[in-house]
Design a protein that fits this description.
This protein is of the alpha/beta class. Helix content is 41%, strand content 14%. Helix 7 links the parallel strand 3 and strand 4. The chain starts with a helix and ends in a 5-residue tail after the last helix. It binds pyridoxal-5'-phosphate (PLP).
């Protein structure tokens, strides 16, 4: 290690590298060495739609109206109020005092960890899960404790498995439904059992819900925030990134017991001060405006999900459950006898399709590949065609 790198903090020396980024780097190397191969990228977890016009117009107007200065740390009342209104369907007790505006759901979780957990505390996470959770817990010396999500259970985490992982150090259970990378939804019955555990062992439930409105086939998304008995111990993180195609705006929010919000606002001051003011005005417009744009995007995702997953299931050796929510498909490739990293690299090399090996999301992801179907019809059709040709050529014996 060079002298300069030796000076890095322990956190930065140990901070986990992104498995998604690693695939980009491999694809970039292959593209440059392979003469600019036409790689189809199915790794990026964001909508391939523009932010709806009514939201863009609200932002432009907000800038012209002078919303270009700092806002209060907890966010602008207009936006906090709009968030509280959305959650009145969970409980009429929710008011803007339960809401802090954050830089995406990502900062919401970091704030929750910094405000409510101490170094040495344990937080239960789904395995496989969104890999940022490992770095986010590390920031405050919190240990992420993975609990397996099995394909037999439709990739939903089970309360009984959570209970086995609870120790005296456990302080929180982090849930993510609909899930990235699994596309699964935790059923209401299981959420209720997890809430019972939270009471029994005196735990927080952190519920990371950025895909709450991206659900298919009439599935019901159920949040622990809807369970009266645990409302004081549930922290909901959400954002407008996925539902409103606003990933680059960096607007999200967190709901919690009103006692915690001022403390979070204090920590927010030292981290980012506040979320950009005109983005907050636009965020309020997004939540209060017509929801057709979101509904139309979800319809498109549903069609593309079918295009991808039906296509993958027709390839010998690949099986893939229908995603119930989010825009991820988690395909089983165990039949090929390779690690998911090896199989993903072969897909780049031979099919020119880049997707993320399941192992990037935790040890239970081994043997799976995550595909994003927030992509064009043409790309999805072409990717399936190429993977099919690659598999039939390189694995003729796999049926
Ligand atoms: N949580 C999950 C499960 C995600 O998949 C993502 C983004 O991919 C985020 C949180 C962060 O989203 P944002 O910070 O843009 O709200």
């Amino acid at each position: 290690m060079s002298d300069k790198l030796a000076k890095l903090s322990n956190l930065s020396k140990n901070y986990p590298a992104s498995g998604i980024r690693k695939m980009f780097d491999i694809a970039a190397k292959y593209t440059s060495e392979g003469g600019g191969a036409d790689i189809i990228n199915m790794t990026v977890g964001e909508p391939n739609f523009d932010t709806p016009e009514y939201i863009r117009e609200a932002a432009k107007k907000a800038i012209d109206d002078g919303f270009t200065r700092y806002s209060p740390n907890a966010g602008m009342p207009v936006f906090r109020q709009a968030v509280a209104e959305k959650y009145q369907k969970y409980s009429t007790d929710y008011t803007m005092n339960n809401v802090i505006i954050t830089v995406g759901a990502l900062e919401g979780l970091t704030l929750a960890i910094l405000t409510l957990m101490n170094p040495g505390d344990e937080m239960i996470v789904q395995d496989p899960c969104f890999p940022n959770y490992f770095g986010q817990t590390m920031i405050n010396g919190v240990k992420a404790v993975p609990v397996p999500c099995y394909e037999e259970n439709d990739f939903a985490i089970m309360a009984a498995d959570i209970e086995k992982a609870i120790t005296p150090k456990t302080k929180a259970i982090l849930l993510n439904s609909p899930s990235n990378p699994l596309g699964s939804i935790i059923p209401e019955s299981e959420i209720r059992k997890i809430c019972d555990l939270a009471v029994k062992y005196d735990l927080f439930i952190f519920s990371d819900e950025p895909y709450d409105s991206i659900v298919y086939d009439g599935e019901e998304f159920f949040s622990p925030g809807q369970v009266d008995e645990v409302r004081d111990r549930v922290i909901v993180m959400n954002s407008l990134s996925k539902s409103y195609a606003m990933t680059g705006w960096r607007v999200g929010y967190l709901l919690a017991d009103a006692a915690y919000i001022p403390k979070m606002a204090q920590i927010q001051e030292g981290m980012v001060s506040c979320v950009s003011s005109f983005s907050q005005v636009a965020g309020a417009a997004a939540l209060r405006g017509p929801q057709e744009a979101t509904q139309n995007m979800v319809k498109e995702y549903a069609r593309r999900r079918d295009l991808l997953i039906d296509g993958l299931n027709a390839i010998p050796g690949i099986t893939c459950k229908k995603s119930k929510g989010s825009f991820y498909a988690f395909a089983n490739v165990k039949a090929f006898g390779k690690t998911s990293q090896e199989f993903a690299e072969e897909m780049i090399k031979y099919a020119h399709v880049i997707a993320v090996p399941g192992s990037a999301f935790g040890s239970m992801g081994e043997g799976y590949i995550r595909f994003v179907f927030a992509n064009s019809d043409e790309n999805i059709i072409e990717a399936v065609k190429r993977i099919d040709a690659f598999v039939r050529e390189h694995y003729p014996d796999v049926k």
